[in-house]
Amino acid sequence: MKRLEKLVSIKDLPEAPVSNVPSLNQKTGTWRVFRPIVDKEKCIKCSICWRCCPDISIEIDNEGFPIINYDYCKGCGICAHECPKTAISMDREGK
Amino acid sequence: MKRAGIPTEEFIYSGHTACPGCGALLVARYLLKVLGKNTIMNIPACCFAAIPGTFPDTCLGIPLLYNAFETTAATASGVEAALKIKGKKEKINVVGFAGDGGTADIGIQALSGAIERGHEIIYVCYDNEAYMNTGMQTSSLTPKGATTTTNPLGKKGGWRTRNKKNMMDIVAAHDIPYAATVNPSYPMDFVKKIEKAKNTKGTSYIHAYSVCPTGWRYQPELGLELGRLATETGLFPLYEFENGRYIINYKKKTKEVLEYYKLQGRFRHLSEDFIKEVQEYIDKEWQKLLVKEECSNR
Amino acid sequence: MVKKIMTGNIAAAWGARLSRAEVIAAYPITPQTIIVEKLAQFVSDGELKAEYLHVESEHSAMAACIAASQTGARTFTATSSQGLVLMHELLHWASGARAPIVMANVNRALAPPWSVWVEHTDMMSQRDTGWIQFYAESNQEVLDTTIMCYKLCEDKDIQLPAMIGLDAFYLSHTSEIVDIPDQEKVDKFLPKFEPAYPLDVENPLSIGSLSMPHQWYPEFRYKIQEAMERVIPKLNKIEEEFYKEFGRKYTGPLELYNTEDAEVVLIISGAATGTVKETVDILRKKGIKVGVIRLRMFRPFPSDYLVKALSKISFIGVIDRSFSFGHEGAIYSEIKASLYGLNAPLIKNFIVGMGGRDITTDTITKIYENCFSCLKNNKIDIPVEWIDIKV
């Protein structure tokens, strides 16, 4: 089935409500109150932050460091709390 | 490929609408990482009916069939039967993924039927201990002492006075081939158990601890810490029921219920005496579990 | 082609077998049991290659059928009365999901008082679920309609579920001669089921998503109605094709019997039509101009067909074997609405045969007499009259 993008009229719809557009177009980062910041000096590249992110918004770069995708991160703070080296701080947005 | 003990591949897209710090999301994420691409999910009315987004969006990279509240196990049975007759069941995992209300309350009949029929499905109950999607109403898996919107705190008490239904015992009574409790705070244990479920001939039941910062009223960053406390207090023991035998996977019951209760707003009103009562109950249940393990392995 | 003596229940099972239903999920209920027993036997004997699910309720039966259909299997179930109303939630789901499930429903009354005998309230109360509804008159029609329903429901222009009503005991347990079509011919007539949006790991879809008020909900509902509007034209074509293949003629949503020159026409559905036809024959011999219209289909409702058929009729009696409490018979309501604004004849509602009470030629003769008396006075005595109530 073709990706159901740019739905304008009833003629663009399938017969049943079947979805196939990845939710990536929803930028849930706008929900965030606190912003996680990674301190590479402290980071030991254990990837625990990547593992425990419910928003799947932490990627690991080629060197093994976490990169936070602020488009989606909702700022729950689990990564900061779980980091064994307190390498992630949570800063209030817009400060 | 694995990283930090869990598979790297993702089957959930960002942009989903789960609350910040959602436990159910981690349960689904780990589950799908293990089961992989060849998986069909069946989801009833629950938080996860809203989390993927609205038509035509979806956060899932695998096929998902939404179903009516009480039908998860029956729906999964239908998918499995259709795959079987089409000769496709061998390589496709059929998953039912429902909340505690959809499992222990309204969906328990369909679940009982599906296990009894022996469908090769993996039924996962993500237990956030109340009807969270509708705004935190009591379910039969809401723990003793908790307040919810239908057990509201009032002048004469009002909090929940009953203990959680034991779903693991209920499914074990069906002589289910495999059942296990999982907790995202123990990801390697989680992964191992889903792998077992994947390879089980017949029905598997997975009871997943699933934190809910919104409903339990705690700071979302504490999610995984709460999970560890739940297991270390014995409130959520990690164990399996495999071919009639109980296996406890984590035996260090070192913490007190109070430590767990005091972090959550839903328990804030409770007296020390009340929590002591809960402690006694949990201790007794833990002893029972040890006996079950011992007896079933003789 | 083999002719056999069989009950309506067996005919329904043969319909599902010849259509090669692949997933059957069913729960037993009197008087449907023989349908599911027979299907289970077909599966046990290896005569039907299907997954038979012994579900723990009708609710789960329908849930499993919907899911199996969406996965890509042709599905069948059968129920009756309490079982059908237990399914109610999922009947809505099936049409919303556009799952082309075919179901036999043995029309039976609802409790209390307990009654296992014929009445149409079970199906009438599913009016708004988005299912196509047929009411059969004979066992042959039960079998043939089952096969035709798969072709109709699975058509890409339709994609809707259908239920076929067969009256408790009068059809379900009464034996008639039934022609069993050749499997090869049925296979030729009915192509393999290809779901429009299958659950496929290579092309993952999320089926049944949420839709907010400002998004697409009304549009999806509108699409169901658009499909409903295509049902009768499609049915007419399928019946023509069926006639060519199997030599049995069906006449679309209505069956007209001696209506051409009739003064009084009764409208009825289900097996009791036979009794009305017999009464018509008796009265015609006496020179009384009566006729009957059998409503084969209640959803979509064939308004245009009825308006046309009733254009020259002086008096219409509508027989409902069900009742909408607080109002009137459901078929009566629909027919009145269809005739609204037109130069409508006199029309009266008769509530007859509830809970399986026998409808005899005497009952029908009395009804025709009552119609003629109203016609003579040019006035309806009682617009909605319950017949044979012990007063």
UniProtKB/TrEMBL annotation, chain A:
Any GO MF annotation of the entry: metal ion binding
Gene3D superfamilies xref list: 3.30.70.20
Cofactors (names): [4Fe-4S] cluster
PROSITE patterns for this protein: 4FE4S_FER_1, 4FE4S_FER_2
Keywords assigned: 4Fe-4S, Electron transport, Iron, Iron-sulfur, Metal-binding, Repeat, Transport
Domain 4Fe-4S ferredoxin-type: 34-63, 64-93
PANTHER family: PYRUVATE SYNTHASE SUBUNIT PORD (PTHR43724)
Oligomer status and interactors: Heterotetramer of one alpha, one beta, one delta and one gamma chain.
Protein name from the UniProt record: F420H2 dehydrogenase Fpo, FpoI subunit
Organism: Candidatus Methanofastidiosum methylothiophilum
Automatic annotation (TrEMBL), chain B:
Gene3D superfamilies on file: 3.40.50.970
Keywords: Oxidoreductase
Residue ranges annotated for the Thiamine pyrophosphate enzyme TPP-binding domain, each copy included: 66-207
EC number: 1.2.7.7
SUPFAM superfamilies: Thiamin diphosphate-binding fold (THDP-binding)
PANTHER family: PYRUVATE SYNTHASE SUBUNIT PORB
A molecular function (GO) term: 3-methyl-2-oxobutanoate dehydrogenase (ferredoxin) activity
Gene name of the encoded protein: vorB
Source organism (scientific name): Candidatus Methanofastidiosum methylothiophilum
Coiled coil: none
Subunit structure: Heterotetramer of one alpha, one beta, one delta and one gamma chain.
First-level EC class: oxidoreductase
InterPro entries: PorB-like, THDP-binding, TPP_enzyme_TPP-bd
CDD domains, per database record: TPP_PFOR_porB_like
Protein name per the record: Ketoisovalerate oxidoreductase subunit VorB
UniProtKB/TrEMBL annotation, chain C:
InterPro entries in UniProt: PFOR_II, Pyruvate:ferred/Flavod_OxRd, Pyrv_Fd/Flavodoxin_OxRdtase_N, THDP-binding, Transketo_C/PFOR_II
EC number(s) per entry: 1.2.7.7
Keyword Phosphoprotein: no
Gene3D superfamilies: 3.40.50.920, 3.40.50.970
Keywords: Oxidoreductase
GO BP term, pick one: response to oxidative stress
Domain of life: Archaea
Enzyme class: oxidoreductase
GO MF terms, alphabetically ordered: 3-methyl-2-oxobutanoate dehydrogenase (ferredoxin) activity
Keyword Oxidoreductase: yes
SUPFAM superfamilies: Thiamin diphosphate-binding fold (THDP-binding), TK C-terminal domain-like
Domain Pyruvate:ferredoxin oxidoreductase core, first and last residues per copy: 262-363
Domain Pyruvate flavodoxin/ferredoxin oxidoreductase pyrimidine binding positions: 19-231
Assembly and oligomerization: Heterotetramer of one alpha, one beta, one delta and one gamma chain.
PANTHER family in UniProt: PYRUVATE-FLAVODOXIN OXIDOREDUCTASE-RELATED (PTHR32154:SF0)
Designated name of the protein: Ketoisovalerate oxidoreductase subunit VorA
Species name: Candidatus Methanofastidiosum methylothiophilum
